[in-house]
Amino acid sequence: MKKINVFLISLVSFIYLEIIIKLLLKEQILETSLINMLIFILAISLLFNLIVTFFKKERLNKTIYFTLLVFITIWFSANYVLKSYFGFYLSWHAFNIADQLESFAGKGVIEVLKRLPGILLIFIPLIISIIFHKKLTFKKLSIKVKLIYFSLFLITLGAYFLSLNFNKDESYSPYSLTYEVNDINLHVEKLGIMNNFVIDTYRTIFGFEEKIAINENPIIPPASDEPTLEEPKVYTYNNLDIDFNTLLSNEQNSTIKQIHEYMAHETGTLKNEYTGYFKDKNLILFMAESFNEVAVKKELTPTLYELIHNGFEFTNFYTPTIYSTIGGEFQELTGLYASSLDILSKFRGGKVSFPQGVATQFQKEEYKTYAYHNNTYNFQNRDKYLKSLGFDYYKACQTGLEKLINCNEWPRSDVDMIDTTFDEYINEDKFMVFYATVSGHSGYTFSSNAMARKHEKEYKAFGYNYSEGPASYLAAQMELDQALELLINKLEASGKLDDTVIALVGDHYPYELSVTEVNEISDFKRDANVTINKSNFILWNNAMSKVTIDKVGSQIDVIPTIYNIFGLDYDSRLFIGKDILSTEPGLAIFSNRSWVSDKGIYYAANGKFVPNENVEIPENYVKNMNQIVTNKITMSRLIINNNYYSKVFN
Questions:
Q1: Which of 152, 272, 389, 542 is the most buried (most CB within 10 A)?
Q2: Distance (Å, whole) CA 119 – CA 113
Q3: What tens digit of pLDDT does each residue of 186-212 get?
Q4: How far apart are CA 419 and CA 428, in angstroms?
Q5: Nearest-5° angle of CA 260, CA 265, CA 269?
């Protein structure tokens, strides 16, 4: 019987796996650096062949072969499920949020079953190997043949590293992804899962940090050229009296010195006409589960529609979907970019210092602060990181809220949470409240989602003709809408409506829905990487007049904007996000380093920049913006990993 060479079958299998996962995830194969990826797979296949023919006993070699192939198959399958459902690829740091993934275990089984045809396609190389295992040869290679294979491996590996130098200066080239940039999603999109596995394993063991470019000559926003009859008001910066040069000279740690130097060259953001606009008013801040602008329909969700279109209306706001709920909430509450799972793990631990944390800042102004969540109190360690942000009072299911609402249904009611907690803070002179909602959570069928089922008749009375996924999502979001309506009515009845600001942002778009399903209920066609994340930021007070803001913004800009508009003392240099109402140029950053600015959209996977109409694009604009994006991502990681704020505020 003619034997099949293990090298050939492994080479074909690895190429197949990389291509099939691209097809399953509907990613553009041509956006992959195919030459680099294929050369790398060739090198890995040669090494793989050496490993599985190394020992004298064929049975041992065969065991090693199938063990490795099973691991590779499971790794590819896990990447497929994670990326298609949660929006990120698997890495070793993903195990830092294993409890979050575990909490979706029941739902995860359903999601795996939904993707079973794709998973079976990924398993084909393993299945073929099992069927034809008797035809595979695992005989120990002779020294001479081993040397030939090892020499070919070294030559191929050398060719791979040589190939990295072609177009090395392009943004996010294979060279930069290998030596300079740490971005799991972009790395997989460009170089494949096997390449990323090797790089991620190396960086997990030995560490890696991107370099930042210090802005020696920060750009000061120019004064307006428009004539005015009045003397223009001169605004100062939203900065504290922090001497970064002294901190720099007294610091021994090289990483902390690097952060100090970066901060010393930041200008911060200017105060503006809206500084203190809501001073001394109460604040009720929401992180709304899976809220997106596609849920806003004038007749279906009238309260959301009213708040969005009659307060500060942000027309170019995004909620980048990065590491699910924990990523979105981290960005909203810290003003930092959720650059990696390791910093989210540290954040969740509650050991990171936030002297400018949202509850702490309002407490300085003699506000009473409260936090509520209608899910399990310690999900994602919310009890720990809310405390690090200054919240001493936090009520959720299993810490008292279960006595007030039904914590046994899923998802739980936002209306009930508002109704039963309102009286706890309404009689305070000044209050700041944070609500993390759950009614809009995934599981978008009328049979499985308690909130969708609750509003099914109301929804269907409007006569929409959407498929069940989008329909049940909209029905579930009606619960959030009615919770806000109840809140407004209660505030009005208490005489505190005009003295209270409502702010709301989503954690991510409803990623359980496909792009096609989202576009069913969208008023424009969205792409899967950037515009799928376009959403709303509610910032509303009953006594205000409507203000339209066209500048680009995202979750990381929420806290700096709130601090400025409430007239709080804070240092804008220490936030990666910026006050949207300031003169700072707008920018939103997404999970694979694509971005939106006030001048256009950049798609990192293919390096394509789509400028807005009638805008002037400066020379080297994209290159400079990519460096700014890298700086913001890297600084966010350095700030959390080094507990930097504790160094600044001692």
A1: 389
A2: 9
A3: 999 999 999 999 999 999 999 888 877
A4: 17
A5: 110
Pairing state between β 600-603 and 608-611 = antiparallel
Quick one: tokens of 73? 């198959």
Closest CA to 335 of 564, 529, 513, 50: 564
Using an 8 Å Cβ cutoff, are 343 and 326 in contact? no
Angle between the 193-206 and 34-51 helix axes, to the nearest 10 degrees? 70
Question: Nearest 10 degrees: CA dihedral of 67, 68, 69, 73?
Answer: 100
Beta-strand relationship, 534-535 and 547-554: unpaired
Q: Exposed, middle or buried by CB within 10 Å (0-12, 13-18, 19+), for 206?
A: exposed
Peptide bond into 411 cis (omega under 30): yes
SS3 244: helix
Between CA 84 and CA 87, with CA 85 as vertex, the angle to 5 degrees is 70
Determine contact, residues 81/109, Cβ cutoff 8 Å. Answer: no
Class assignment of domain 275-579?
alpha beta
pLDDT for 339-385, tens place per residue? 888 899 999 999 999 999 999 999 999 999 999 999 999 988 999 99
355: Cα within 13 Å, side-chain hemisphere: 14
Which residues make beta-bridge pairs with 611?
600
Q: How far is CA 594 from CA 50, 188, 513, 575, 612, in A?
A: 39, 14, 21, 20, 15
Strand partners, 313: 548
Q: Mean pLDDT across the stretch 604-611?
A: 93
Question: What are the residue ranges spanned by the domains of the chain?
Answer: 6-171, 275-579
Q: How far is it, in rounded angstroms, from Cα 131 to Cα 304?
A: 57
Instruction: Quote helix, strand, coil % in the chain, to nearest 5.
Output: 50, 10, 40
Q: How far is CA 438 from CA 49, 413, 442, in A?
A: 50, 8, 9
Strand, helix or coil for residue 590: coil
What does R_g of the chain's alpha carbons equal in angstroms? 27
User: Across the strands, what pairs with 237?
Assistant: 270
Identity of the amino acid at 295:
A
